[in-house]
Amino acid sequence: MDAALDQIAARAAAAARPFAQTTPRARAAALVAVADALDQNAAELIAIAIRETGLTEPRLTGEVRRTSNQLRLFAEVIVDGAYLDARIDDADPEYVIGPRPDVRRVLEPVGPVLNFAASNFPFAFSVAGGDSAAALAAGCPLIVKTHSGHPELSRRTGEIVAAALAGAGMPDGVFQVVAGQQAGVELLKDDRIRAGAFTGSTHVGRLLADIAASRPRPIPFFGELGSVNPAYATAGAIAAEPDLLQGFLGSVAGSAGQLCTKPGFLFVPQGAELGPVGEAAATVPEHRLLNPGIGRAFEERRGAVLAAPGVTVLAEGEVRVDDAQQRFATPTVVEVDLATLREHRDDLLEESFGPLSIIVRYADADELPAVQRDLFPGNLTSTLHASEAELADGRLADLVDALAETSGRVLFGGWPTGVSVTGAMQHGGPYPATTTDATSVGTAAITRFLRGVAYQSAPQSLLPAPLRDDNPWGVPQRRSTAGRSAGWGTLTGHH
Questions:
Q1: By its UniProt entry, which PANTHER family does this protein fall under (predicted)?
Q2: What are the CA-CA distances from residue 80 to residues 72, 333, 472 (Å)?
Q3: pTM for the complete prediction?
Q4: Catalytic residue positions?
């Protein structure tokens, strides 16, 4: 490792204990300071992002708002202190399992975190995005490996975030930015890094996850990879939702389909009338893809889908290339029957990162649970469109079970693009959607960068603040007092 990277890792390691010991209120104030700074510099940042990514001003304006308010939400969570899950078991010589010592457990920061930023959300999943917010909220020093797709935006955002954290009194080394693939790999191998986060392709994410797992001291690696997010529509839904096709196309084409939750497949009954897919798709204007590399990959993937046996083209779309090798795309929608999808799964099931989706015709809804379990074992989302009567009669229960087994979020109606940042959100899923089935969106994301530590028979003076009897941080404490074990089982109704 070169001297500059070594210094970055050393600064992060030196900041770990001081940052972990900051009070929740002080750390929350720092997150709010970052949010305020992003909002104050939004016009400058959005102008850079438009130039570097080709995304539209309305989309980026909303993304900045999401990013800053996500930081404020995380600030609210850590001020409350419930996320620390502080548990206190008082010493109990009469404990029914045997004498119990005083044991106190709390969640503590894991240490320096390395976050690999994404390309498709230059704010919400980049330098100041969800993974960064979660690590900082947890009290972990953060190093962000920026994405090559928006280097100027990354540098400027990093300067704003670093200045805001320093102005809020956070320790030196709490937040740093590096660029370049080699720098990211070298830091991921460094023993001072204690967790990694990533949003990007399955290929790169798996390579990084394997590096994290094969270190002399393996570390947790939270990679969000690929997802095709199947959607299922019943006959009842087709009849009851006249705007189903328009909603589907809007979700497929939004931001040129460069969203991890884009529905890659829509299952509909044989004979169901969706409307003129080609005409509807033709009304969607072309949109630039994020960078030449992503554009080339989409062009190749689209060509493979169009050339697959048994495919019927409903909306061919097109890909235009300019002098700078940027691609501009319109939606491509094809149709296959279920037998073709099964037979040619190697050609059709891979994610198409761009405005392309496949409509699949099925004969009997009873075969859909097996389809989901067999063809789509790991997804960020799965969606079910059905009438109220179909949902109420229980016939879809097995399909819903299959969706829950294979997905992080199950939607009833609507479309999966547009992930709300909430306390209950789950943005993860079984592999290959993620390398570790956790969430990268919502307040539960903070827990990825925490680890449980129990203190047994410790003097009050050496306990962390959340576990002390005087509770100086005022956090919720779940306490088990002496003598309670004698009453175990009385609440179950069995005597």
A1: ALDEHYDE DEHYDROGENASE-RELATED, SUCCINATE-SEMIALDEHYDE DEHYDROGENASE, MITOCHONDRIAL
A2: 13, 47, 13
A3: 0.94
A4: 224, 260
